[in-house]
């Protein structure tokens, strides 16, 4: 794993949260994107070299809606950049981690993504991210 790619924060209302985080960081988000397969609308902010992803559910069955219902708004996941997501998935499975995605899937911000179950990572949902090269 190379670095923390971003921190994902589950929010009830993306528009209101964009205003809040714009005030916090002193600048507007740089991207809003919908990920239909995950039932979310996302917004990205930069703070120095770091990125924050706000996630709003677009339907009541989405993982974000279920997360907010269970735990409320707050940190949802920590994402790490990797060079080769498929080999990293295999390495982590060998190390005993519970991988939620056997195959990477297309995520927000032009990334391949896969997740590790929080049961195997001290209660923290971990996302692996690799840039999609066109």
TrEMBL record:
Keywords: Metal-binding. The keyword Metal-binding applies. PROSITE patterns: VOC. Pfam families: Glyoxalase_4 (PF13669). InterPro entries: Glyas_Bleomycin-R_OHBP_Dase (IPR029068), MeMalonyl-CoA_epimerase (IPR017515), MMCE/EMCE_epimerase (IPR051785), VOC_core (IPR037523). Residues 3-131 form the VOC domain. It comes from the Bacteria. The keyword GTP-binding does not apply. NCBIfam families: metmalonyl_epim. Belongs to the methylmalonyl-CoA epimerase family. This is Methylmalonyl-CoA epimerase. The lineage of its organism: Bacteria, Pseudomonadati, Bacteroidota, Flavobacteriia, Flavobacteriales.
């Amino acid at each position: 794993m190379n670095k923390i790619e971003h921190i994902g924060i589950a929010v009830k209302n993306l528009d209101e949260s964009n205003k809040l985080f714009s005030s916090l960081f002193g600048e507007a988000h740089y991207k809003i994107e919908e990920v239909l397969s995950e039932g979310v609308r996302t917004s990205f902010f930069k703070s120095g070299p770091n990125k924050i992803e706000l996630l709003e559910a677009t339907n009541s069955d989405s993982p974000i809606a279920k997360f907010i219902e269970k735990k409320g708004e707050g940190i949802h996941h920590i994402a790490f950049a990797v060079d080769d997501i498929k080999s990293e998935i295999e390495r982590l499975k060998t190390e005993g981690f519970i991988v939620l995605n056997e195959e990477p899937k297309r995520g927000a911000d032009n990334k391949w993504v896969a997740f590790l179950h929080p049961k195997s990572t001290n209660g923290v949902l971990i996302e692996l991210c690799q840039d999609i090269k066109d």
